[in-house]
Design a protein that fits this description.
There is one protein chain. With 569 residues, the protein is mainly β. It has 3 helices and 48 strands. The protein has 4 domains: 4-69, 3-Layer(bab) Sandwich (Phage tail protein beta-alpha-beta fold), CATH 3.55.50; 75-158, Immunoglobulin-like (Sandwich), CATH 2.60.40.1120; 203-409, no CATH class; 413-568, Porin, CATH 2.40.160. The radius of gyration is 42 Å and the shape is rod-shaped.
Length: 569
Amino acid sequence: MPATKKIPSVLNRIGQTAGFSFSYNSAIIDSNQEISLEATNQTVRSILNEIFSASMNYKEKGHYLILTRATPAPVKNNIIVVVINGYVQDESTGEKISNVSVYDKQTLTSAVTDDFGYFKLKLEKKTDSISISVSKKNYRDTLVSITAPSNQYLTISINPIKQDSVVITAQTKPADTISVAKKEVLSLPYESEPNVQNISDTLHEFVQVSFLPFLGTNGRLSGNVVNDYSINFLGGYSLGTREIELGFFFNLDRGDVSWLQIAGFGNAVGGKVYGIQAAGFANVNGDETEAVQLAGFANTNLGNTRGVQVAGLANTTLGKMHGVQVAGFSNVTVMPSQGVQVAGFGNVQIGDYVGSQFAGATNIATEKITGSQISVLFNHGKEVRGTQIGLINYADTLGGVPIGLISIVKKGYHKIELSADEVFYTNLAFRTGVKKFYSQLMVGFKPTQSIEPTDTSVWTFGYGLGTSPRLNRWLSLDIDLLSQHVNKGSFTDELSSLNKLYVGLDFQLAKKFSLATGITLNGYLTRPSYSDYPQLFTDFTPHIFYDENVGSDLNLKMWLGAKIALRFL
């Protein structure tokens, strides 16, 4: 049993041990009161609270610790101001615990224990019972009830959650047979805040008004509160919003948001979004989105999306997209989706897509696309069930038709053609696309002998479109429309346009070899004012059934001709 000593003597001993002096009015302490005290590894505050039972206030100044009598809790309009302080400790070990959340759910007043496990709460409550919640990650939540509201000193013990000591090993399939869809998680600021880490309860408020995160009506508990309405002058932080959230600069929500969210700069939501979301710069969502999203710069969703995305620069969806995406630069979706993509530069779809893509430069679909791809420069699709329109088109397989300068279908129609006609005895052409509709690039050459020192060889290059429907297993009907520029010497820098309509038959002689022949309707358009045109016919001159001037400065010659060709591939 420790010996009893008078309070002044005990205070002197504490001061000598801790290296400071007490300062107090002797009238507030009963100098004759004797106490029995034994303390080991305790803070000065906890010892004083044990001595005075929270009837004193303590203030440190220089080398002095000033003691003053705690005033009784004032009562005004049935509201009592209560100061609750104390320590939180591990019930198993008795060790004081730091970063513990201590809070009142009704007033949203909160505190976090310091490095010594100490906390202090100042509550304004009606004169009824008080319930203090205590939460710490990996500890069980604890509720402390105070039936007689007054200044209190408490030592609160909390129980750790014991981990299951049994390890269960499940047999799995080999790694190469397991397909795991990794869910992206949106990491928001303030996730490491103690209250965010500790408190699993969902608190609710009708309205939040804040200037900055944690500087508002919900205080340090704002990240744990779901609000019906939230008004954030610069920025706000909450667990979620049920009705309307307005942020003059930004809004941050850890959980779900519904109906209307507007921010001058940006919105970031860790949970689901329903309704309308608009931001001057960007919207970023971590879970499913069913909304109309409007952003001056970008919309980015990590989960599935249904609705409409409109962005000045880009829309990006890492989940499935069902709806419309409109962006000034690009739209990117990385899972099977359906809808419409419209972009100033390009659309990228990773996974199957049901819908159409429209872009100023390029459309890319890595898997099956059921719809059309229309762009100025380039379209790419693995399996296309629709139309491709662009300067260059590529597809593994194509169920519709490609329209462009060059259209390549990997499992489509490809032919290298060597041919001769009444003008050019040697022509080389590449026909690519599908049998329903293909394009062709061609060059032709007719060498001539001349005693003139200048080159008088005649050559041509051209571009055409065609179709080749199959009549039976070995026979197809060819219909081509081709336009050629005919040159003499190096190049004829004048109108010299030979246009052909070809109708013929393609006889499949072997798997990758065929013979084609047919007739052509030719029209050669020139200017009469130019005299140095190439000589078209040398050994044979067909019957020219039309030779008339067209307009004031054009001449058109027309005749029937023929072509014979060998085709490979």
